[in-house]
Amino acid sequence: MIFNTDTAKKTAELLLQINAIKLNPKNPFTWASGWKSPIYCDNRITLSFPPIRNFIREEFAKHIEKEYGKPDVIAGVATGAIGIGMLVAELMGLPFVYVRPEPKKHGRQNQVEGFLQKGQNVVVVEDLISTGKSSLMAVEALKEAGANVKGMVAIFTYGFDVSVQNFKNAGVRLNTLGNYDTLLDLAVAKKYITEDEHDTLKEWRKTPDTWGQ
């Protein structure tokens, strides 16, 4: 679910401008999972552009309070959402923690880093949603640490059916600033891609695990 259409359009425009999202149907990228993909998204690039990172943190802060109420803590998912999550927490005047993909192998063996008390209301900040698996593992880690997870916000989602189902099964509310459909429509309108490339990108999302094989 997106926060609103205007925010989604603005987010798509900014991500395309700085090449945080690259669209290349003719020469697909290979993801770490092995999937072939005509799109690549690296939202960490937004941190290098102050006006854009400020837009993202302000939209997040505004919509978090509107959708979830003001939480006790903001949590970022490592590593992609640590930077933007901390900016959101700073703007909202809230404590910040971050969640590792797995517990540390040494020391205190923490998975949640920072000060978190049992029963505190937490909103999780993520940079990108693909299948949702790693994002929901972070939610689970927070719950195991005693947090009351109100929901998650992310900069962008591919909107895969599997991710929608995963969040539904986990009972976790997800809201995103940008989304795939809005991005494609804007990319055609701004001539980043052709109509044919738009169709290719639409097809990819239906079966991303087998596309291009």
Automatic annotation (TrEMBL):
Entry keyword annotation includes RNA-binding: no
Cofactor: Mg(2+)
BP term (GO), one: 'de novo' UMP biosynthetic process
Binding site for orotate: S130
UniProt-recorded Gene Ontology molecular function terms: magnesium ion binding; orotate phosphoribosyltransferase activity
Catalytic activity line of the entry: orotidine 5'-phosphate + diphosphate = orotate + 5-phospho-alpha-D-ribose 1-diphosphate
A Pfam family recorded for this sequence: Pribosyltran
Domain Phosphoribosyltransferase: 58-149
Keyword Membrane recorded: yes
Sequence intervals crossing the membrane: 73-99
Pathway linked to the protein: Pyrimidine metabolism; UMP biosynthesis via de novo pathway; UMP from orotate: step 1/2
CDD domains (UniProt xref): PRTases_typeI
Residues at which 5-phospho-alpha-D-ribose 1-diphosphate binds: R100, K104, H106, E126, D127, L128, I129, S130, T131, G132, K133, S134
Enzyme class of the recorded protein, top EC level: transferase
Keyword vocabulary terms for this entry: Glycosyltransferase, Magnesium, Membrane, Pyrimidine biosynthesis, Transferase, Transmembrane, Transmembrane helix
Family assignment from sequence similarity: Belongs to the purine/pyrimidine phosphoribosyltransferase family. PyrE subfamily.
Self-association and partners: Homodimer.
Protein name, as recorded: Orotate phosphoribosyltransferase
Organism: Flavobacterium beibuense
Lineage per the UniProt record: Bacteria, Pseudomonadati, Bacteroidota, Flavobacteriia, Flavobacteriales
